[in-house]
Amino acid sequence: ATAVAVKHLARPQSSVVAIAGCGEQGRVQLRAVSRVLPLNTAYVWDIEKSRAEQLARELAPELGVEITAVDDLAASARQADVCITCTPSSEYILGCDDVRPGTFVAGVGVDNPHKKELHPNLLATSKVVVDVLEQCEHIGDLHHALAEDAMTTAEVHSELGAIVTGSTPGRVAEDEVVVFDSTGMALQDTATAAVVYERAMEAAAGQMIDFGS
Q1: With 90 as the cut, is the pLDDT of residue 85 above it?
Q2: CA gap 176, 166 in Å, rounded
Q3: Quick one: 80 exposed, middle or buried, by C-beta within 10 A (0-12, 13-18, 19+)?
Q4: Angle CA(49)–CA(55)–CA(58) in degrees, nearest 5?
Q5: Strand partners, 85
Q6: Is the pLDDT score of 209 beyond 90?
């Protein structure tokens, strides 16, 4: 979903990405974004720096991107064209002063009401796009922005699907900051599972299981 959002909402020439959270999700996000942008530099941050260093060692040769493990997330985010947060944080880790004009920000880690990544002031001063509005209102970074009266649901620009289909415009200016609040979609999971199943059948791979027995 982040790669789809990046394709439609980030500046096409974006070459520098900052990743917050270097677990499996961080790896998935970096691999996905590298397929839709001409990346040459990645800054990776984790509360445990050894995890960031391990990610850098593993993915730099695979992706052909210069990957640096960093200590200061905010400083790295200010140098990035794209910033992706995928942590289990319960405190805000990125605010409006931590991104420069034109940045695309994806908040991926918040999937319950207690997690926090993007400060309400970042959402309030950006163009906000969500995957599912009703869901983000209750469990996304949007949830906290609404709870703190930083913005209203009427100020959310669009759901991502409407931008992909062309019924709502995406980025309209080079210098606007766009925030994608992603909480996960059951439809996306189902569609992905269908593709995996179809490819497995074509390749005669995997193991058949009879759930009826």
Answers
A1: yes
A2: 19
A3: buried
A4: 145
A5: 20, 107
A6: no
What is d(CA 18, CA 21) in angstroms, rounded to the nearest whole number?
10
Model confidence at 67, pLDDT cuts 50, 70, 90, reads very high
pTM above 0.85, yes or no: yes
**Cβ contacts of residue 86 below 8 Å, gap of 6+?**
19, 20, 21, 23, 25, 26, 29, 108, 109
Q: Which residues contact 204 (CB under 8 A, 6 or more apart)?
A: none
Q: Rounded to whole angstroms, how far apart are CA atoms 39 and 32?
A: 11
Q: For residue range 173-183, list pLDDT tens digits in order.
A: 999 999 999 99
- CB of 180 closer than 8 Å to CB of 3: no
